[in-house]
Amino acid sequence: MAAAAAVTATGMSAVLGGDPDNIVARAEKHGLTPANMNGAGQIVVAGTMEQLAAFAADPPEGARVRALEVAGAFHTSHMAPAVGVLGGYARSISTHDPRLRLISNADGQVIHDGREVLKRLVTQVSNPVRWDLCMQTMGELGVTAVIEIPPAGTLTGLIKRALPGVETLALKSPDDLDAAWAMIAEHTSASSIGSQPTWRLLIAPAKGTFAQVLTTPVGDSLPVGAIVGTIDTLRDSTPVIAPHGGVVVEWLVHDGDPVSPGQPIVRLHPESQESMA
Questions:
Q1: What are φ and ψ of residue 59, in 5° steps?
Q2: Are 76 and 115 in contact (CB under 8 A)?
């Protein structure tokens, strides 16, 4: 991103107050991108320094424009060169599906697929942040408390204005940890999942590329001795065998993913074979 920012002199400005539609229209008139739709009366626009200067000289009605000390126009097309680089790195990363609800700041949607999460992390570098939609989703989900991790303060301030009644905590130092744990205890309930694992993992026996043979859906059973796939290299192919069988809880690696020795591939619930006996 630093290399992308060095191509052209770019920056960002916060726009406080005013009508959001008018701000976006005025920004686009000057060739700027509404890079952060933060809600609660705040939008961040981004583009070249010349475009930002023209926008500041022609501000939207009822709005204040404040230049931000940043290295470039992040979350805009100016960061496109970084997307290709990050995309190359992303191809070597294996993912698994989130266990908790993960809200994407691309559109405020809850994402359940690990590969989609990774894809969005890459493309978000050159696309606007929709924190306003994230807060809207939090409200729809009935969120009652939010803890912001360091560097903290900005997002909790926005939440206080957009979601009154939601308790917030900006975690700024180790001194805040006790308050964070107290908030978690107050606003959460005990998980139905026990602290002792009730599953087994099939792991990669070697380094290589995972070629998936079985696509057994989550909740279905694998028989004892099933070959779920192979680990392929230029010289040989090693099968990945489920010695005990079990019910598929989660696929952690997918067809074509690179794997390392000992890397988990699929999580199985061992009780399936007992119930089948």
A1: -70, 150
A2: no
Residue whose C-alpha is closest to residue 121's, from 268, 273, 267, 1? 1
The pTM assigned to this predicted structure is 0.70
Do 223 and 175 fall into the same domain? no
Evaluate whether residue 119 is within a structural domain: no
Q: What is the distance between the alpha carbons of residues 230 and 237, in angstroms, rounded to a whole number?
A: 6
CA-CA distance, 61 to 70, in Å (whole number)?
A: 25
Residues 105, 176: one domain? yes
Average pLDDT per block of 10 residues along the chain, 277 residues long: 82 95 95 94 95 95 94 93 91 79 90 88 95 93 93 90 95 95 89 57 88 92 92 90 88 92 86 42
Q: Which residues contact 84 (CB under 8 A, 6 or more apart)?
A: none
Residue 65: name the closest of 105, 96, 23, 98 by CA.
Answer: 23
Structure tokens at 119: 């894809």
| Number of residues in the chain | 277
Q: Which of 234, 250, 39 is nearest to 130 (CA)?
A: 39
Q: Where are the alpha helices (DSSP H) in the chain?
A: 2-5, 20-29, 49-57, 80-90, 114-123, 131-141, 154-162, 177-187, 271-276
